[in-house]
Amino acid sequence: MATITISVVILGHNWWAIGALFIILLRIYFLKEPQVLIVTLITCGFFYYWLDTFKQHNQDLQQQVQQQLDQSVEFDFTAWADELDVDGNILKTVATLPQTDTKILVNAVIGDKTTKEQLEQVTGRIVLNIRGNIKLIDEATNPGQFDSRKFYALQQINATLSKGQVKVVQKLGDTATLIGWVHKLHQKVIAYFETLPSNLRFYGETLILGYIRSDFYQENQGIRELGLLHLFSISGFQVVMFIKLLRWFFNQLRIPIEITAILTLLLLPLYFLFSGSIPSLIRAIIVGMVAQGLLIIKSRLTTLDSWSLSLLGGVVIEPGILEMLGGQLSYLLALALVFVRGLKFWQEIIMMNLIILPLLLATTYQTHLLAFLANFIFIPIFTHLMVPLTTIGVLIFPIFPVLSNGIDYIIAELSTLITWLSKLPGNIIFGHFNIGLALLATGMTFYLMQNFKSRRGWLILLSIYFVGFVGLKIPLHGSVAFVDIGQGDSIVIQMPYHREVTIIDTGGRLAMPLKQSWQRRQKQAKTNADMFLVPYLMYQGIANIKQIILTHADADHAGDVEILLKTFKVQHLYVGQEMEKMPKYQQLANKYHVDLVGVHAGQKLPGLPLEILWPIVSGQGKNEDSVVTRGSFGKLNFLFMGDLNRENELRLPTKAISATQVIKLGHHGSKTSSDERFLQAAKPEIAIISAGRNNRYHHPHQETLATLAANKISYFSTARDGMIKYEWSLFGGHWSKMKSE
């Protein structure tokens, strides 16, 4: 526990944990066991040094990156073929910059079909030539967003290659080394799995190899929503299965148990390398190695001692493991298994779900009431049916493909059942659970594992969740948030006490057509809304949206509207006049039972906290038809311009736009909007520009920035500042932004 708190302090930058460390050491002191105290202090000293050294080394690597930012680089590097991810015309891998220790993410374009075929067919090692620009990995610029920069920094990867291009220099082929043999075997196994039916491949790779595709949870969202993650990527039963298989094999050869233990001890690290060194398997690997070591020396340890050694060993092997969600869930579930012994099966299921609930609410912001039932049903099914069936289906496919296809059908039906259950009523968008309350809930859950019948304990636990839930669902302030959605627009307006939520535009991504079929990617990329907007809404605990206003039909404003309609309950969808007659919006309205209304200037809509200023005539959903709205929030008047062009800006009534304090500039700060005469009529104090970083249109244009400067209008930009947010309450209002650099 002391090591956990040290990790939280050094890598998590949570200085409050110093108090927790002091309490732990004080508790040990009052045990009056000098040896325990000395061992604890030595352990604390070692891990403080270990984690601080890791942190300092990472900072040195980040300084190396800073010196090379935006520089054009070209270099050759050697990679193992099984570490290359080729999808369409994109290659993804990790490379080390020459003459440095700096690891970078490579996301490079494959120039021609021949190069792609070479990359797909190569075995062993290959030398690649990479060129592009060095840039920092994107950080989280919206609350609730996954922080890629922090995640990769924990693996000492601190930069990425922008505008990368790749070509093959030389195929080195196979190497006669143990590591080379493992890589070659891994590549062959992965290639074999590619030939399997899709559902059998998904389950086989995950349940048997511990290898999780980047699109696994996109294709199997019900698994995440019902809290069944531990069956696939956290429990480490792949390692248990591997050990059992080795034991059976060596037993058939009449090899003594001590020799079997030695061989298993040596093979487990190779299995870890073979699996792709997945952090969530570290705990299970170490526990397996400890168990084999105890067999060799004919000794025993308690399960709690084994768990503790696996945690300490995990931090040595992967210093950042306790800052990764997979590592946190793995160790938390394993510790809970120690405490639930003696409970009935249904009680174990309840407690195992409750122990991970605070962590999931703090990181994914939602849960499902059917999670308990799902675990009760599917744990036995997976343990006694799906794992054996999947293993059989994988092994016999070359001999009995018909039987494997039958197993694939069973897996598909099971996946359909899981998805169906996840769509039943019961999904709760809770919001970001306060870290203090999450720790209290976790501690109380451990207490209830030992005192399951304690009514007072259950009442306290429910009270903790109630306080956290009410605090999120009934906030005492309102907000206007300009979401950093990339190259697009999305504005979230929350009234105090969550009386209503209004969203202006949803963002989206402009699809770039591919000329040839070989360039088409098989893995579905996440939408901008899935990465930026939806996590923010869930972080805020928003489950119901009163209305969505689509200013016009461009993809960067309205492209992701269906993502919101299928994720949240939406009452009204407002579009510019005549857009409501477009088939795609009518289909969406019918599919998701949303009230679709075309709006125009002067129209009064019940419950809408905005006044509509444009359009005044019917349009086609183009820039010049943008829905322009005005509203007062706190003590400020806001004007939201969509992508309205200069000509129509000047047609807006001066009386309606005057006395504006805040304006969301039209067309992402383009010179085609924000006419100086219009700005002089509106007289805003602050301008907001919603644009993507390093966008291909070079928004905002210098002409617009010059106009703002000439009229003494300060501005925020999502490209520079991340999310920009205005919050107000009875005590006044204030602005905030996500980025400081």
UniProtKB/TrEMBL annotation:
InterPro entries reported for this sequence: ComA-like_MBL, ComEC_N, Competence_ComEC/Rec2, Competence_DNA_uptake, DUF4131, Metallo-B-lactamas, RibonucZ/Hydroxyglut_hydro
Annotated ranges, domain Metallo-beta-lactamase: 487-693
Domain of life, per lineage: Bacteria
Enumerate the CDD domains for this protein. Answer: ComA-like_MBL-fold (cd07731)
Q: How does it sit in the membrane?
A: Multi-pass membrane protein
Q: Keywords assigned by UniProt?
A: Cell membrane, Membrane, Transmembrane, Transmembrane helix
Q: What is its main location?
A: membrane
Question: PANTHER family per the record?
Answer: BETA-LACTAMASE DOMAIN PROTEIN, DNA INTERNALIZATION/COMPETENCE PROTEIN COMEC/REC2
Q: What is this protein called?
A: ComE operon protein 3
Source species of the chain: Periweissella fabaria
User: Source taxonomy lineage?
Assistant: Bacteria, Bacillati, Bacillota, Bacilli, Lactobacillales
Question: Gene name, please?
Answer: comEC
